[in-house]
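Cross-check.
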Amino acid sequence: MSELREYGVTTTFNFPLVEYGFTDFKKESPAIYAVGDAQIKKDATAFGNTSNGFAHEGNGVYSLELTAAEMQAAKITVTVIDQSVSKEWEDQAIVIETYGHASAQHTLAAVADAVLGRNLASVTGAAARSLLNAVRFLRNKWHVVGTTLTVYEENGASPAWTSAVTMLSDRVTGMEPT
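Predicted model, tokenized:
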């Protein structure tokens, strides 16, 4: 089971527990948490107990809250293993990848850098009212002839889109993209 959560922010996630030796969820007699049943591994550290225990939400689905400190890792692995001699449920593992921080698994800055630094000439299939066509007006060649504005693609020769404009003397006072 895999989750994507924000780095360093308290989070609660749900997971099923399956009756030991069976395929059904453990719902008739809900599992009772004991210290050591839920353990956490942050990046390359050793496993240790979670700060909180899990709780039965109903129908064999359980929840576990991880603290903000427990969420300070790129990749977090949580195991839910019955520590008692006569096991009540099958072992469970949850992998959490984090985002939104320089130390997270997914920094998102790389995504933003890729989007903002991408050569617009390599983008294909843009819709008429897309971000690409809006940015073309800011960066690419454009001109007004009569009452028609033409914005060009990145090659400077092919029209990307046109618009009727409203003129007042020699100034453009309005535009209606088509």
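Helices lie at 109-117, 131-139. Residues 90 and 129 are 52 Å apart (CA to CA). Passed to J.P. for a second look.
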